[in-house]
Amino acid sequence: MxxxxxxxxxxxxxxxxxxxxxxxxxxxxxxxxxxxSYNVIYQDFVLVRKYQSVYPITLSxxxxxxxxxxATNSLYLSFVVxxxxxxxxxxxxxxxxxxxxxxxxxxxxxxxxxxxxxxxxIGGKTIAPRCRGYANGINVDSPLIIRVEKFTSMTTGTxxxxxxxxxxxxxxxxxYMYPINVRISFIDRTNNKVYTSNFPNLxxxxxxxxxxxxxxxxxxxxASNSRGASTxxxxxxxxxxxxxxxxxxxxxxxxxxxGITCCNAFSSFTLSDNRTGSGYTLLWTDIVSNxxxxxxxxxxxxxxxxxxxxxxxxxYPIQKETYEQIKKMEISFYSxxxxxxxxxLDQLGYSNFAQLSQIxxxxxxxxxxxxxxxxxxxxxxxPITYDIRYGFTLNSFTGRNLDYTILNFTAGVQSIEAxxxxxxxxxxxxxxxxxxxxxxxxxxxxxxxxxxxxxxLYSTTYGWYIRMRFYPNAVTLSYVSTTYAKNG
Length: 488
Fold this sequence. Notes:
Radius of gyration: 35 Å
Number of helices: 4
Strand order of the largest sheet: 15-24-23-18-21-20
Structural class: mainly beta
Helix content: under 10%
Number of strands: 32
């Protein structure tokens, strides 16, 4: 229950009391004299507004990056809805002091937000829960209503977490005079009930905009430059200030655009360093805008530190075009709810990654039909038949989209008469799509083109054999092997 009432003054000095008859939703106001007997001096009906429950939504925690006016900000809310609901629910977040322009959107646009797993997708639906921004009316900017839609049923007492990223704080006059507040409403569309709680003064302006924060030193490198390797990238830097994990105003954010996001989901990345030796405490990750927010570890300012991005997978050749898109990185440090340091840089170019050595070709060629003796020395007038063992040292052929391999014989081969793929000798598996073709390249070298690399029968435990009949012209065979992805 919530009540709206008027305070009355009693001229005789007696105290007053409010008596509520909750069954009939009315109340009387009475005064109490010094003899402890009731003397009704005024009686009236007081409006009683019945809500679905007492404190239907309770706020658990709030995080914000900055209180600077006009600064780009993020807001995290953790709250409990003390009600249950069936599928096709809606939640509204009304901000009186924010508008569509705060997110640079038009009415009804999807905005970047983090939604905790409790906002689960409705069964049988393909569209996941999402946030949209609205304003009531035409050509109206505020108040801003952010609606979370398309999430499934919920149980009472569920703890929900949501974060809004990349919006602009109001100007100094507005944010100082009218702090940010939010009214959260859970709309149970199945039972036609609305549960609402209002939370004023989430934060207000306590400083003017610092403008551009100081630039952090350091350059980007990697622990491994092999294509497709699971590794970490790091910035070798001097820690910008003496940070304190227990100061909740201090946070560090990671924002990525393109680059390594092609090879692993943004939600998989975490921050760490060589000083603390552990991952930073994650507050939330927004996979729409690719922003993650962490508690700042306690490190002394000026210490030489490798700031690491963990769970990176370097790009494969098939991912080159996607990797080269945007390729931006931004790391920001906050203290006292101000953005004090920033590092903005380009991610490493694709040319920095080394060619993989994942194809293996036997170096001990031998005749399958007769033993090699001193009388088996080469003669360019007589052909020799060799078995060449051929395989990969890494699986995941489908993910790499391997297409074909070229064996280029740079010395020792006068001509190739025939070549074909033999089965794996044990366990005698036949790969029906593997094939080999004979040709000469632009440098007049004999080559074998092996196709069918993406067949699902491939395994690192299997070694396929190419039986090649050729005419030698030297004691030693020399070759180069190159495997190509589908994109060349």
